[in-house]
Structures are given as structure tokens and as C-alpha cells.
Design goal:
By secondary structure, the protein is α+β, with helices and mostly antiparallel strands. The chain has two domains: 103 residues, Sulfate adenylyltransferase, CATH 3.10.400; 52 residues, no CATH class. It is 16% helix and 32% strand. The strands form three sheets. Strands 1, 2, 6, 10, 11 and 12 form a six-stranded mixed sheet that branches. A three-stranded antiparallel sheet has the order 3-4-5.
């Protein structure tokens, strides 16, 4: 089963049913080309050009998650173990690998006592990045309902609500203020700011209460 990362406040919004949509960057980004060429967009391979319809289809088919798929949410967590040497970098710097001793796990909202910083290296509890959460340790799951490909600035007022934003103080009218989502996006994606209008996958999903 595939995993997906969310920030802690977004996980809470998902559990409470306030967040049912997420936007993820498409990588690599399609590149708009000169109209003199046979096509509008270049994607993945240089010299391969696609019109809008073909590009939309190819992008959607390349999404990491697909409609009907169940995905587990990766969270920051604590594991008990120690760090072992794991070779050297090209510059000769020591690399380390974490080795867990048990399958016992604590979540970030209920940490164990006495957790140590990674520099401690000895046997202890350590906080682990969400990247390293295995499927068996997950407590939250979502089901993908739909996926599409679009430019970031195509987001609608309704989409912002599905993204978990409180839009009660934003008037829904022509030229409505997208500032809340813009600020949120830019804080997470500094290399692909709102103004650059990158291509994204909007995923619609539902929270699966009680697990898988």
C-alpha cells in the first residue's frame, strides 16, 4: 500500500472531515513551447510535444494515486532503537542508519518520555520523520475518489473549502480573494510558488473511519 504525507494540522482536519482534497506537484513540470512547433507542451522527454487534450490524459495516467485506491497517512512517530554506522559519503563523512528494536510505536501527539536527539546514537526512543512510517504502523487511511490534472491557479472557492480552509470570512464573488490558499501553498512549496502557476494533481478523497 502506498503512503502519503500530511502536516499534523491537516491530518486532524482529515479526521474531522474538514479536508477532503489535496494538491500535489506534478514532476517533472510540463513546459510550454513555441507555438511554431507541432504541439503546445513538452513533457518528460525533450522534443516530445503534446496538445492540451493529450497532455491532460498523459498527466492523469501518471499520477501516483488513482481513484479507488486506499492510501495510508504517514505521520511523525517515535521508535525505540539505536543508530549504526552505514558507510561514508563521497566526501568521507560518516553516514548513520536507524535500527529499531521493537514494533512498538508512539505517535507525535503522545510521545514517550526520555526521547533523545539523533546525535545521541545510543539505545533510546527517537522521533522519526513521517517518511519512515511503515504501513503496519499507520492509524489513518484515506480512499482516493478522483484525480485530475490542472494548473494551480484553477482552484475554485469550493476547492479551498475542501482543502480544509475556513473561507467563512471570504466573499464568494468574481475576483474572490485566494490569499489564504496562496499563503498556505507558498509556505509548503517555496520552489513552485503560486505566481508560477505550476501543474498539480488535485486528489479528492474520503477518510476511512476505523482503519482500512
Amino acid at each position: 500500500m502506498k503512503g502519503i504525507l500530511f502536516k499534523p494540522d491537516n491530518i486532524q482536519a482529515i479526521v474531522e472531515g474538514r479536508k477532503t482534497q489535496t494538491r500535489r506537484l506534478i514532476k517533472p513540470q510540463p513546459k510550454q513551447i513555441n507555438n511554431d512547433f507541432d504541439g503546445t507542451w513538452e513533457w518528460k522527454e525533450k522534443g516530445h510535444y503534446y496538445d492540451d487534450l493529450t497532455l491532460f490524459t498523459m498527466l492523469k495516467n501518471s499520477s501516483r494515486y488513482h481513484a479507488g485506491e486506499t492510501v495510508y497517512i504517514k505521520e511523525a512517530h517515535y521508535r525505540y532503537g539505536h543508530w549504526v554506522k552505514n558507510g561514508l559519503t563521497k566526501t568521507g563523512k560518516q553516514q548513520w542508519r536507524f535500527k529499531a528494536f521493537t514494533h512498538t510505536i508512539y505517535y507525535a501527539d503522545n510521545p514517550p518520555s526520555g526521547a533523545k536527539p539523533n546525535s545521541y546514537r545510543q539505545e533510546a526512543w527517537y522521533k522519526r520523520s513521517p517518511l519512515f512510517m511503515p504501513e503496519w504502523a499507520a492509524r489513518h487511511f484515506i480512499k482516493i475518489l478522483a484525480v485530475r490534472a490542472e494548473r494551480l491557479q484553477e482552484i475554485t472557492y469550493g476547492d479551498c473549502i475542501k482543502e480544509g480552509l475556513d473561507m467563512s470570512d471570504v466573499d464568494y464573488c468574481p475576483g474572490w480573494d485566494v490569499g489564504k490558499f496562496k499563503s498556505l501553498w507558498d509556505s509548503i512549496n517555496p520552489k513552485y510558488l503560486w505566481e508560477s502557476n505550476p501543474w498539480v494533481f488535485p486528489y479528492e478523497f474520503e477518510f476511512i473511519k476505523g482503519g482500512k
